[in-house]
Amino acid sequence: MRTILRAALLCLLLPACRPDQIEHLSNTKELAVEAENWQVKRIMPADLLRATRWGGDSLTNTADRELRRILAEKLQEGGVAAALPYCRPMTFLEVDSVAKVLQGSLSWVSPRPRNPAHRATLTPAELVPTDTARRVARLSAEEFTYQRPVVLNDALCLRCHGTVGQDIKPADYALIKKQYSQDQATGYKVGDAMGVWRVNLKRAGVAELYTMKTRKIMKKRKPLF
Predict the structure, then answer these.
(1) What is the layout of strands, in order, in the sheet containing 104-109?
(2) Distance CA 99, CA 146 (A)
(3) Helix or strand or coil: residue 136?
(4) Confidence bin at 62 (pLDDT 50/70/90)
(5) Is the pLDDT at 34 greater than 80, yes or no?
(6) What tens digit of pLDDT does each residue of 129-160 get?
């Protein structure tokens, strides 16, 4: 009796397992990658420092790009008088948007600032005139810092930071001194380091950036036909 029942059950199951009735998934590789991306992964201290550099680069490059773009527009529109109020990249909308995504803040300091609130003592090593120099550090369990030089790479900047009477018109410098009576940010030439960018980042923002930057993305498959 048992033999008959097994034979009957086998007859019922076999049709359901026919190869032509099995639905094969065409995107198994994509599903595997997505599953791996959703796995909880341990982020090591070195990974967080690497992400701090990525975040600092992103924020300072945005600030540098927007500063040059906006100042060029304002100088074209109305000279130094029109550009002077806009030499504050930390207040730009694009910079603020990136800072919020990264959960960070941006500032710049200099031993020869225009605004005395930005004065800081910096070592020669910190003022190496190359914007490829980077310093990243972890101040605490939840706070990371990034620093790189602010390098005068655009000759347009000399109209406010070059030599008075040569690059800066006396009338323009009078406007600068009227707003910044303790100004020391002149006498620079192209290629000089004027100070440093400083970025503070929270651990949550750094960890999220690392996760997104290292997330695997499958290339789109080319259609067969």
Answers:
(1) 104-109, 193-202, 143-151, 135-138
(2) 13
(3) strand
(4) very high
(5) no
(6) 886 789 999 999 999 999 999 999 999 999 99
pLDDT at 60 > cutoff 70 = yes
The distance in angstroms from the start CA to the end CA of the chain is 55
Cα torsion angle, 101, 118, 57, 158, sign: positive
Q: What is the pLDDT of residue 129?
A: 87
Answer for the pair 129, 191: CB distance below 8 angstroms, yes or no. yes
Alpha helices per DSSP H over the chain: 2-13, 28-37, 45-83, 93-102, 158-161, 170-179, 203-213
Q: How far is CA 186 from CA 98, 117, 159, 177, in A?
A: 30, 17, 10, 11
Residues 6+ apart with CB under 8 A from 120: 109, 110, 111, 195, 196
Task: Find the Cα–Cα–Cα–Cα dihedral 22, 28, 31, 37, rounded to 10°.
Answer: 150
What DSSP assignment string belongs to 197-211?
EEEEEEHHHHHHHHH
**Rounded distance between C-alpha atoms, residue 126 and residue 147, angstroms:** 9
